[in-house]
Prior knowledge:
By secondary structure, the protein is an all-alpha fold. Helices cover 77% and strands 0% of the residues.
Amino acid sequence: MSIFIILLCILVLVLLITWGKVNPFLAFLVVSIGAGLALGIPLEDVAGSVQKGIGGLLGDLVIVIGLGAMLGKLVAESGAAQKISQVLMNSFGEKNIQWALMATGFVVGIPLFYNVGFVLLVPLIFSVTYQYKLPAVYIGIPMLAALSVTHGFLPPHPSPAALVGQLNADMGLTLLYGFIVAVPTIIVAGPIFARTLKGIDSKPLATFQAKPLPDDQLPSGFTSFFSALLPVVLLASAALLNRFGDFSGGTAKMVSFFSDATIVMIISLAVATYSIGLACKKKMSEVMGYYTEAIKDVAPILLIVGGAGALKQVFSDSGVSVEIGALLQNMDIHPLILGWMIAAFIRVCIGSATVAGLTSAGILAPIMPQLGVDPNLMVLAVGAGSLMFSHVNDSGFWMYKEYFNVSIKDTILSWSLMETVVSVVGMAVVLLIDLFI
């Protein structure tokens, strides 16, 4: 019955937005409340669950998305994005630009949470799109596939890192196997799959579009890359220090402080305000005007993402994810495929890759000794399942749709199918590795 309710809620959500033309945020609120009541959450707790979902998700994202949009706007208006795109195209050529962006997404995605990496790198995708008149979806999918793969397969991302502990896997081996799985998965879901997407009409968010500047008014290549990628460098450095450093006392507190994405974004925006703003002879009032425009443009995205968080929280608080996992637990199939299926089913129903992964781990952990499989591969199998078919109940779906400004149909044909390819190919490579170890 619970599964039927979930499917009905998703159908109603899609119909409200597409057929009824209801604002997505309002649609999420209505469906979330209805889902809470239908799934048996106490009447007095439904509103609290909705509020917790919105606040919990936006609490992590609102500052990062807001500051990231400001940085992206300045990178675009200062000419830094134009300079970056020139350097990339001159280095790799137009035929290979997808591979350049894919490699950037993979390197950046290792230390960064998916949403942070998305916000930081989307302006780079759009700069290439605007400068060279290339289809945004065709150019962007390889980079987003790389970000998605690192999010689902590689520690220190939340789900795989937690799965390592819950399934008694080895962090180093999981990371090694994860790289082996990641490379072919990204290639298939990125440049190869993107060949089918050239015809998708996309008008990316205008906040990242700037008028071309004469070459003599552009920042230098070093300044442009440094300003745009400083958050990546800082977060990667912090991740390495946390992973390999042995700190205590005040030093440990300082490293922890500067590891926070909010602090990193504030520092990066301050540096960029000078390096590609004031140092390029722009007035402070002009730079602040860019920031105001950027916040106006991303405000609707924040509300939609928050709405997706409300629906996810209602599903989680109702306990339906545990019920779904229990239905699949006794199926007579290969243990790695079982782990993948449990995570995939929860992901499609609930929307959150992290929730799908962690819920699956809670179901599988007690029976791991009887399954007789490598726990490191189980981590990756669950990670692959947790990325299956992102759709309207996933905040990533709506970030992609709103940033790239595409229809729901085209979002499903590009974003949702890309995530499905990542999940299926990733699982296939995990099974291949299982044959040799």
